[in-house]
Amino acid sequence: MAEVAVTRKGQQRLEEGHPWIYRSDIVIKGKEPAPGSIVSVLSPKRQLLGQAFYSSKSQISLRLLTSTSEKINHEFWRSRLQMALELRKQVVSQAEAYRLIHGDGDLIPSLVIDRYQDYFVIQTLSQATDLLRQTWVELLEEMFQPKAIIERNDVKVRNLEGLPEQTGLLLGALPEQLVVTQNGIRFNIDLLTGQKTGLFLDQRENHLVAQSYAYGRALDCFTFNGGFALNMAKTAKSVLAVDISEPAINQAKHNAALNQFSNITFQTANIFDLLKTFDEQQEQFDTIVLDPPAFAKNRNAVEAAIRGYKEINLRALKLLKPGGILISCTCSYNISEEMFLGILQSAANDTNRRLQLLEKRTQSRDHPILLSVPETYYLKCSVLRVV
Prior knowledge:
Layout: E1 3-6, H1 8-15, E2 20-22, E3 26-27, E4 38-42, E5 48-54, E6 60-66, H2 74-91, E7 97-102, E8 111-116, E9 119-124, H3 127-131, H4 133-144, E10 148-153, E11 166-172, E12 178-182, E13 185-189, H5 204-213, E14 217-221, H6 227-232, E15 238-243, H7 246-258, E16 264-268, H8 271-280, E17 285-290, H9 302-319, E18 320-330, H10 337-350, E19 355-361, E20 380-386
Parallel strand pairs: 1-4, 9-10, 14-15, 14-17, 15-16, 17-18
Antiparallel strand pairs: 1-3, 2-6, 4-5, 5-6, 7-8, 8-9, 10-11, 12-13, 18-20, 19-20
Helix pairs in contact: 8-9, 9-10
């Protein structure tokens, strides 16, 4: 096995529990390890620190797998998958779709596996997990006897690893139509070309929370396939669901019809423009959900993202009646919880409203957060009440 030494800074990072080592903190003597190989990680004094995935392209050169010298083979990976499955048995309910492997959160860095009934979607996001693609297929066959395994590697992060964006069927066959049930609500899924791997699985638990708070006239902004809107339709008198994407609105309409909801209206519009128009028209709502796409995909975008989050939350607060509920989300890792709450307070100050924070929520529990890896804590969802 090839060896890669790390600097003192790199060693300290590993000792603090973070599994990533950047290219500036590695030292390679002799021949460079093969792209995507598993290497021994050594301290500056040549002591074994563990074993890691090696990338020849990414700035994240090493992703630690274990701090021991144990064999990393088929059984090693099976035990990691089994450990992840045991967690899902504890935390997943009322769901035919969930995340089985959440990368570093499940100690298999750069691998995502989502389950939709007996269909599995995998994303191999580094050179190493891509080389092990057949291993993941074999393990899923052994453990679940899937009807199909789909590759959804149409994500830009693979470019950082020198990998192409691609999708395809790795095993089995897809049905003409796949419908899964989440929180008692049915959704039509496109596993090959749909957004993400088919659904925004990380919001599943927050959809249910929105259902418990929603009342009166509700507004769901950035609805995508209707996740929040359909859940709120069970408790709100009426729901207006809005998205800028016409295909997304058409999909949401189909899902509403699938569930026979008659109290949802759908509209294709730019949310920023629509909220401004509603403000000018002095529209009023009892419940508003803001679930925008990531405004800050990197650190350079944080300043602009803060302005964007501030504007939509400020507009929403102007539209809410006293006692109204605002469920506001950010899926930008680069916007911390502290920053996000500060944005919400700033919006409240500018609208002369006061907010009660009823709940601070994260991504669903099948997307576990590893405390030593802050990057695994990306979704923040605040439930607030206007007083």
